Every structure is written in structure tokens, then in C-alpha cells.
Amino acid sequence: MDYSMSPPPYEASSYFPLQIGMRPSSPPGVPFHAYHVSLPSGPPPGLVRVERPAPSPICRLTNSEISLFGDIALYFDHPYDLNGHPVVVDLTCTICADCTLEMPANESALRPGLGPDPVVESMVEPLAVLPCGHMFGSRCLDTWLSSKDVSGEVPTCPQCRFELYHPARNCGHYLAPKQYSPQLSRSDQIPWTIPEGGSVPGECEACVRAQTDYQIERLEELLFPQVGFENYRSDDDERLVQGARLMFARNVEIMRHEVRERTLRW
Ligand SMILES: [Zn+2]
Ligand SMILES: [Zn+2]
Ligand SMILES: [Zn+2]
């Protein structure tokens, strides 16, 4: 006999007690009140309830989850995860495996009861970031880089051996780490790292400045010559002045661009 087509023995609503807008119903024949009163409030006899600590609402990121600056930079200005839980970044320097990396000041507000401890504070080091995205205690990184300098080796990232030079076909100068200051926002101090889509510019800041100064001097010579145009201007002179004006406008535009891009430069 095929039961699948048989009508249910009681009202269909009993099968779907949690339909939206409906009150949960009791099993057939049991009054609603009696059903809910008789639910057990404790564990069944013979079972031992295991007491677990309530899960912490604070999301703590440590070295096992984080190796790149880009993974934590987002939390510096907004230290909350997608569920709105506070995010605490708790990283140790991977060179000495000992000192704690300094994070934004809002961190301490998220650690009630863990006020500044002079012993702990002395173990905190400013965060130094490299273009490859790796980060270290700044003192440990300085020691590492100066040991490379003394032995005449190429300065590299201690973790991935990224070479800290501007491209050799350009200026080829040393590429200094950037130190993170918790008082400033990220965009005021750390350029985009390579894993975040950043890049290493051809020229270092000093070379760009030197080139800009040179261009300004040349322009001054052209626009304000020591001798020449007061008494007589030939067509050639006019063309020279015209060319100088165009060059000046172009270089001013380049300088403005440099200022805008300043924070993206390593
Ligand atoms: Zn260290
Ligand atoms: Zn690296
Ligand atoms: Zn340079």
C-alpha cells in the first residue's frame, strides 16, 4: 500500500511549527501550555555538562595568521572585523622572536586591565615595513641591515630576501624601510606594499628632488636670462621664450604630480 498519498492524520500546520508568523505548535493531542512546561531544563541524567569558556568577542590576530603588512593595515583605521568584533593585532618580531610590534594606540583601549606595563613596554618596538610587505621590529631590522652593510652584502628582507634597491637601470640607490607611527594614519606614512599592488619607483626621493632642482635652475636661466632680451628680440628668441614657458608648465605639472604621489613612494 502506498502511504505517500495518504492525508496526514492531523492538521498540516503541526508539521511546520516554525513557519513565519505562526506560533510553534505542540504535538497533536498535547495542550500547548503542557508541552512547553514539560521541556527539560537541565541535562539528561547520566550526562555531564562540560563547562566551556564563552568564546571571546575579540578577534586576536597573531603571527600564525599574519605575515604581511597589508593584512593588518585595514584594521589600523577601523579595528573591527566583519561581525563588528574588535580586532587586536598582536605580533612579535620575526627576527628576534621576542619583541612585540607597536600597534595603533586604540589597541590599549581594547585590552581592559592590560594597562601600560613598564617591563612589557620596553619590549615593544616600532613597526618597520618593507616594500615586499614583511614587517619587523625597527631596531632588529636596523641591526640586520647594518650587519649586511658591514659585511658588504646586498641589503635584503630577512624573510623573503627581497633586495632593497631601486631598479639598477634607474638610480639603483638603497631602498629604506618605512617606520610605522601609530599616531599617524597609514596613508600619511607607508606606501602600498607590492602584495597590495604597490611598486618600487625607479628613482629614490633624493634623486627625484635633485632632478627637480636641476630642472628649476635650467628654467630660471631660460626665463630670466642675465643678458639678452631687453633691447632686442629676434624670432629665435621668441621661440626660445615660448619653449621655456611650455617646459616650465610641464615641469610644474610633474612637480605637482610628485607631491600628490609622495606617499606612494618608497
Ligand atoms: Zn625584534
Ligand atoms: Zn620580505
Ligand atoms: Zn636615487
TrEMBL record:
Coiled-coil segments: none
Keywords: Metal-binding, Zinc, Zinc-finger
Listed InterPro entries: Znf_RING (IPR001841), Znf_RING/FYVE/PHD (IPR013083)
GO molecular function: zinc ion binding
Record-annotated RING-type domain positions: 93-161
Pfam family name, one: zf-RING_2
Domain of life where this protein originates: Eukaryota
Protein name: Uu.00g040040.m01.CDS01
